[in-house]
Design a protein that fits this description.
The complex is a heterotrimer.
Chain A: H1 3-21, H2 24-49, H3 58-75, H4 79-101, H5 106-126, H6 128-131, E1 137-138, E2 145-146, E3 149-150, H7 154-177, H8 179-189, H9 191-195, H10 201-227, E4 229-230, H11 238-250, H12 257-272, H13 280-293, H14 297-304
Antiparallel strand pairs in A: 1-4, 2-3
Helix pairs in contact in A: 1-7, 2-7, 2-10, 2-11, 2-12, 3-4, 3-10, 4-10, 7-8, 7-10, 8-10, 11-12, 11-13, 11-14
Chain B: E1 5-16, E2 19-30, E3 34-38, H1 45-53, E4 60-65, E5 68-69, H2 75-81, E6 83-86, H3 98-106, H4 113-127, H5 142-155, E7 160-164, H6 172-185, E8 190-194, H7 198-204, E9 207-212, E10 215-220, H8 222-227, H9 229-236
Parallel strand pairs in B: 3-8, 3-9, 6-7, 7-8
Antiparallel strand pairs in B: 1-2, 1-4, 4-5, 9-10
Helix pairs in contact in B: 3-4, 3-5, 4-5
Chain C: H1 3-35, H2 42-60, H3 64-91, H4 98-120, E1 134-136, E2 139-143, E3 146-150, E4 156-158, H5 159-181, H6 183-193, H7 195-200, H8 205-227, H9 239-251, H10 257-277, H11 280-297
Antiparallel strand pairs in C: 1-4, 2-3
Helix pairs in contact in C: 1-5, 1-8, 1-9, 1-10, 2-3, 2-4, 2-8, 2-9, 3-8, 5-6, 9-10
The chains are: A mainly alpha, B alpha/beta, C mainly alpha.
């Protein structure tokens, strides 16, 4: 077993063990952090490994969340198929958005993704009769049961979040160590060179968008199931900025970075909310400081300083 | 000796606005030969090879590779058919290690992990970068980056290796090594070489094509080209 | 009101919106054109202009006209200075890398917005217009006795709104004169064309960039100062101008000032007209999708020409 695999299995084991020792409050925070870290890991596939900066990933999160939520609430679909429907919705959206947005690059790509995401938010408001618009809707505890397990209960919720987190963490680790994953990195580093080595750059990029969007959709669906709320705010601009921030903070293009960044930022905001209501100020300051002083993030800087094996 | 054609073009042209960068070029490169493409700056050499490997679409005309019309194929498909292109301006993956660079060239056509590693090692040894496998490509000296660029071409085991001014910026001793390397490469692959250094051209080429103002003005063996008047005028200022 | 007068009213309202939008979008377009960076905090500079205009009129007191004139001069100047400082402290240090600039200006967006929330508070506050006479407008009708002129009830515009249109026109012309005729304009155009060459010819590119970033923000702040007597100042008011400016700059062709003006008038007018007749959410959604599609299929904008 290589150091890299060992590290990631170690993190997974530690998170499992923490479930039994953490006080209730931090137990709840960590469950949320793990789901949001899945969101960030999905974002990282595109941004960190392929070099595609999206400003609209809230749409994939929301597609997963609403796909799941509407299926359960409006059409009485049971939880597991509803969850899968949420993921399928994000997958389809990512496919369509990918095909369209990948015609552009750089700044235009960022703006196009931002606008597609904004359109989804406005669509959620416009079809308020089904989506309940701004208010969103709650999922009753009775709906959030699977095979006799109550996903609203703290222990099962933690365990479910941990399961999804572990699958996605190991999945992205496998992806970036695979042959395809290395091609994604090559595209990030030098797109023209990659094409001239005989790789279909467009198809690899599309794969990255679809994988990324699907993972983020899974995060959105899981968030809705585990915390019992589906709301339009999750499709708004801040939820496109958060994964970017978490990934930048933890280290873009590192497998464990998104989790580190999410954890760090959650506790930073948690601490600052005791001081001021304007907690988004912390987000803004963090973004500026990161671009100025730590462009490679925490884990990226570690990798630069001797831990070259960090995937 | 009936040479088998590997790559040929028919009346290949490229316009930029009103300017014709390449005019009606018809070439025929046989399997196994080393072909040099020479000409003054701005003669259209890079534009021509870019159309061969698909980086630039042709305005009109045809490119045929191994008997197959590839004119409309995108670049990556042509590369996959067995062309390899090394960039005039060194274009390596600067953040990746030397061996990872070559690995990307190798892994497209080899499946097994061990064979990939073996092929990477062999290729790096061949260009003399064996001891630098773990260095970061961007940290290499310029000459070594050029060698890495060539290694990435060789790693693809191409049928046709296109080298765009490979000796630019190399020292004399490095050029000597390069000539020896291309000699050994040409035993198995066909080579198309754009080159300014006339000594390298004379030492390596089986046949030389001379381009001026986007047109072929002469074609022949090194001896014939040396004696050609049109070539001398083009080069020495006519 | 009949359809005809109603449409005229909608168009006049649209023209006021378009005037403010033109100023705001010109700022964004100028920054993108010269510096090749996208300023995501542009909407917050707009908001800052409105909020500062409120503070200034509040502090100056006295007759509304005097306070407003002071605000009109000082608010854009202050916002421009703040923006230039942000450029000098942040953007210059990351070497105007396009992607990192976007991330950094997102950071600035939240910093400005939240600091405003902490100091100015969550309330929306009005600024008294310097003058506000209601001007009734005539309409005509083809009756049995030929064309008849009459004054429909509700068809009117205020003198202040006419002033907004006039002020925007004047600023636009001044900007054009600076860009086309002055030495500063020459320097800006040279920097836009080729940063390295301009630098080689002794243009202090870093200072030019700070100036342009400040000027872009000042234009947004000017638009905002003009609009506070009509809309109120609020810490979240920057979102819509940002989105609309983006749309305008994209439709007009990235970096083209002339395209920006044409697109701003087109979009400001149609936004004004559409929101009178249709559901604003649906209109916004379709407009946003449409703009995304323009970027996907015609990245040079509707009025820009294809780069060679």
């Amino acid at each position: 077993m290589s150091r890299a695999v060992g590290l990631h299995l170690g993190v997974i084991a530690a998170l499992l063990a923490l479930q039994f020792v953490l006080p209730a409050y931090h137990h709840g925070v960590l469950a949320r952090v793990m789901v949001m870290a899945v969101f960030a890991m999905g974002y990282n596939v595109m941004f960190g490994y392929t070099g595609l900066l999206s400003l609209g990933h809230a749409m994939f999160f929301a597609a997963g969340m609403y796909g799941m939520g509407l299926a359960m609430k409006q059409w009485d679909v049971p939880l597991v198929p509803a969850f899968l429907l949420g993921i399928a919705a994000a997958f389809l959206l990512a496919l369509v958005v990918g095909v369209l947005a990948l015609r552009t690059a750089g700044v235009a790509f960022m703006i196009v993704t931002l606008m597609f995401s904004q359109s989804l938010f406005l669509a959620i408001l416009h079809f308020g009769a089904i989506t309940r618009g701004d208010e969103g809707f709650a999922l009753a505890r009775s709906l959030r049961q699977v095979a006799g397990l109550d996903l609203a209960a703290p222990a099962t919720r933690y365990f479910a979040a941990w399961g999804l987190f572990s699958v996605v963490l190991l999945g992205t680790l496998a992806l970036v160590r695979s042959r395809r994953g290395r091609v994604l990195v090559a595209i990030r580093e030098n797109e023209e060179r990659t094409r001239m080595l005989g790789y279909d750059v467009w198809r690899h990029k599309l794969m990255a968008v679809v994988v990324s969007g699907t993972i983020c959709g899974a995060a959105g669906a899981a968030y809705g199931v585990l915390f019992g709320y589906v709301g339009a705010s999750f499709s708004q601009v801040p939820y496109s900025i958060f994964p970017l921030l978490w990934v930048l903070l933890g280290g873009a293009g590192t497998v464990i970075g998104p989790f580190v960044g999410t954890l760090f930022m959650f506790y930073l905001i948690d601490l600052s909310s005791g001081l001021t209501d304007a907690y988004m100020l912390v987000v803004g300051v963090a973004l500026v400081l990161l671009t100025l002083f730590l462009p490679r993030g925490l884990m990226g800087s570690l990798r630069d300083r001797g831990m070259k094996w960090l995937p | 000796m009936a040479a088998v054609s590997l790559l040929s073009t028919h009346a290949l042209s490229r316009n930029y606005g009103g300017l014709q960068a390449v005019k009606n070029v018809s070439l025929d490169i046989s399997q196994g030969e080393v072909r040099a493409l020479i000409g003054p700056n701005g003669a259209g050499k890079t534009t021509l090879v870019s159309m061969l490997c698909g980086r630039i679409p042709a305005t009109s005309g045809q490119v045929v590779f191994e008997g197959r019309d590839v004119t409309t194929l995108p670049a990556h498909r042509r590369i996959a058919l067995g062309m390899a292109y090394t960039f005039q301006i060194t274009s390596v993956f600067a953040e990746l290690s030397v061996s990872e660079n070559v690995e990307l060239a190798v892994q497209r056509h080899i499946a097994e992990r061990q064979k990939i590693t073996a092929q990477v090692d062999r290729t790096l040894e061949r260009v003399g970068l064996g001891r630098m496998a773990d260095r970061t490509a961007g940290d290499l000296a310029y000459g070594h980056q050029r060698l890495l660029e060539i290694a990435m071409g060789l790693g693809q085991t191409p049928k046709l290796l296109i080298l765009d001014e490979p000796t630019q910026g190399l020292s004399d001793s490095e050029i000597e090594d390069f000539v020896a390397l291309i000699r050994s490469v040409s035993e198995k692959s066909t080579v198309l070489l754009i080159e300014h250094n006339i000594n390298v051209v004379m030492a390596l080429a089986d046949k030389i094509t001379v381009l001026n103002f986007g047109e072929i003005i002469a074609e022949g063996t090194p001896g014939e080209i040396r004696a050609n008047e049109a070539v001398q005028t083009a080069y020495l200022g006519g | 009101m009949d359809f005809g007068p109603h449409l005229l009213l909608a168009m006049l309202e649209g023209l006021v919106q378009a005037s403010v939008l033109t100023l705001t979008a010109l700022g964004l377009s100028l920054v993108f054109g010269v510096m090749r960076v996208v300023n995501v905090a542009h909407g917050e500079f707009f908001m800052l202009g409105a909020v500062l205009a409120w503070w200034i009129t509040f502090l100056v007191g006295g007759p509304p006209a005097l306070a407003f004139i002071v605000a009109l001069l000082v608010a854009p100047l202050l916002v421009g200075t703040i923006a230039a400082a942000a450029d000098w402290l942040v953007l210059r240090r990351i070497d105007y890398d396009p992607e990192r600039t976007i991330v950094a200006t997102i950071g600035l967006l939240y910093i400005i917005q939240q600091l405003t929330l902490m100091s100015y508070g969550p309330d929306a506050r009005p600024v008294a217009p310097p003058f506000n006479t209601r001007l009734a407008l005539p309409w005509f009708e083809f009756g049995s006795g030929g064309v008849q002129i009459y004054w429909p009830w509700g068809l009117s515009i205020t003198s202040y709104k006419l002033f907004v249109i006039f002020a925007a026109l004047l600023t636009g012309l001044a900007l054009w004169a600076v860009m086309a005729r002055s030495r500063l304009g020459l320097i800006l155009r040279a920097t836009q064309q080729d940063r390295e060459t301009a630098q080689a010819f002794g243009v202090p590119v870093e200072r030019v960039y700070a100036l342009v970033f400040g000027l872009g923000a000042a234009l947004a702040a000017l638009g905002a100062t003009l609009v506070v007597p009509i809309q109120q100042a609020h810490y979240l008011m920057g979102g819509d101008p940002l989105l609309l400016s983006f749309i305008v700059v994209i439709i007009g062709g990235l970096g083209s000032l002339r395209g920006t003006v044409v697109a701003a008038i087109l979009i400001g007018m149609s936004d004004g007209i559409i929101s009178v007749f249709f559901s604003p959410t649906l209109a916004k959604m379709l407009a946003t999708l449409l703009v995304a599609m323009v970027l996907v299929f015609r990245p040079q904008g509707l009025f820009g020409s294809k780069p060679a």
